[in-house]
């Protein structure tokens, strides 16, 4: 039972499955039926399923048959209608074919026209596309053409800007075209070309300013000179000066004019030509001569190209080289002022350019670089000036050089360069200038002293008198009262020397101008230089004149008179210096003039030379002495040579009337002493071996003539017999021998009241020895021949006693 139930259950389950499969076959697409059928074959009920399937097919067939039977009449009607439609369709087809044939025939031209229209439309689209592409390419080509034109006309900075626009704006829009690729490939080469050409322009510019730096500097210094002259006028005429521009404004206006010139200027000449300008026209500004556009362009180009540092280093390196060339002075610079001027012009031109570059570019040069160059230039310039100025022997050239250095310093100071060291160096050159002045004035003084006639200046009219007094400060009431013609006591060299001293002071003052020195410093400089002139130069010139071999007593006397008046004029020189420096002599630390000492020394030297000259003249006369030392009798008169000598002395001392009293007295006393000493030497000289009493008496007459001259008072001012004392030694010696007063001499020797106090026993013995053997040869003693032996014995006795005196004196 249970088995039957189970079989029945399985049968129902199988039937349900078969039903499901059938429904699935009916509803499933034929392509996907395979899995369904596979499940049937996999089961065990294949036969039953086939039966089910057959049964289902039969059911569907019955349904189709029913449906066809139901619709068959409709189908027949539809076929009948379809057959009718076929005839109509055939007829319609013929009509359509005919219509199509006619349409084709009629539309053939239209088709051709449409085909042509199609081609036109295609061409139109192509043209439009081409125009659009060309519109993109044309700006590129125009920019490239513009670039080429700018390159051709050397507008390199605009060309570089055009190249940038071309590369970054235009070429990316048409980068797929081949010609654009060519352009892109050319861009680096074009940049290098612009870079090289701009560098070439810069080199040309650097070479040009190197060659023309002297012209630039000359113009700058001319303008500085004009400005200084204008400042001087302003200082003298304040009202007029208020209408003028200040120095700073003048140079600022120059910079403004230069900066107004576009850096993109197309003129690359570098230096503008100003050679044809008229001299009376206004001097152009220094920077107006220079076209700086090559520098600006090159700087901008290298900045754009990212190589600004390379450009700065190159520019600075080249300018340093040029600076060293500029600072190398020519070997013959010291020969002329033009050599110094050209040297200064080149330096000024160099730094004017650098200063302008500093202020018109950002960072191409900086203040540290400029200061470094200036320090180098300053040291080299000062060294060169020290070396070359030392060769200058012309004070006028040194003065002109000083003025040129001051102008050089003032010009650079306007541009902000420190120039204190230049003014310090000028103080060194001042000492050299003083030396050259001293050498020049040595020649001037020498010419004055050599050409002077050493005679008082004669004047025959009031006009000539005032002329001399105007040249030399001289006042003499007695001389003014004298009628014309009259004479000044001094010779022409006095006013000439005085005026030359003033000229020297003026020359010293000229050098001190514009050195920014105080009045006290100027006064001290002038006084020190004038002292050197007086104590070294003038003193040496006077000493040389005084020591000349051919100088006469008259000239020496006139020199003493002249130096006396020059000594008195020193106070006027002090006043002259005070007036031009406005520094009172009472001011602390003020140097005093040594003129008084100079002229005193010269006068003393002249006095000594007078004494020496007089003695030489006396010696010359004494050389004419021709004594007969063995003469038996005297001539009863003085010797001729001595008479001439006395006459010479009288005439000489008569010339001494204008000399100071002490000088004339000293000269007279010196002459008498020298004459007495020379006569004593003449009497005692070794060549005179024997001496007769007659010769001694003749010698005594000559001494008496000398004593007579001394008593006559050839020079006023001596007291009584003061001048005769010069001959006292001779007088006592001659009296001792002519009076043969040996007993008195020997008895009183050594006592203050001794009659023969001035007779030296050595001198007496020497003279006595000369007279020993003369008694035999002297005719005077012939009649006393019987007393010869006694006389000789007496001489021997006196000589023995004299030797005893001498020995006792030495012991």
TrEMBL record:
One of its GO terms (cellular component) is plasma membrane. Gene3D superfamilies: Dsl1p vesicle tethering complex, Tip20p subunit, domain D (1.20.58.670), Exocyst complex subunit Sec15 C-terminal domain, N-terminal subdomain (1.10.357.30). Residues 273-282 have a biased composition (Acidic residues). It comes from the Eukaryota. Residues 421-770 form the Exocyst complex subunit EXOC6/Sec15 C-terminal domain. InterPro entries: EXOC6/Sec15, EXOC6/Sec15_C, EXOC6/Sec15_C_dom1, EXOC6_Sec15_N, EXOC6PINT-1/Sec15/Tip20_C_dom2. Residues 226-283 are annotated as: Disordered. It holds the Pfam family EXOC6_Sec15_N. GO terms for biological process: Golgi to plasma membrane transport; intracellular protein transport; vesicle tethering involved in exocytosis. Residues 226-239, 253-264 have a biased composition (Polar residues). Coiled coil: none annotated. Residues 52-221 form the Exocyst complex component EXOC6/Sec15 N-terminal domain. Keywords: Exocytosis, Transport. Component of the exocyst complex involved in the docking of exocytic vesicles with fusion sites on the plasma membrane. Belongs to the SEC15 family. This is Exocyst complex component. The lineage of its organism: Eukaryota, Metazoa, Chordata, Craniata, Vertebrata. The gene is EXOC6B.
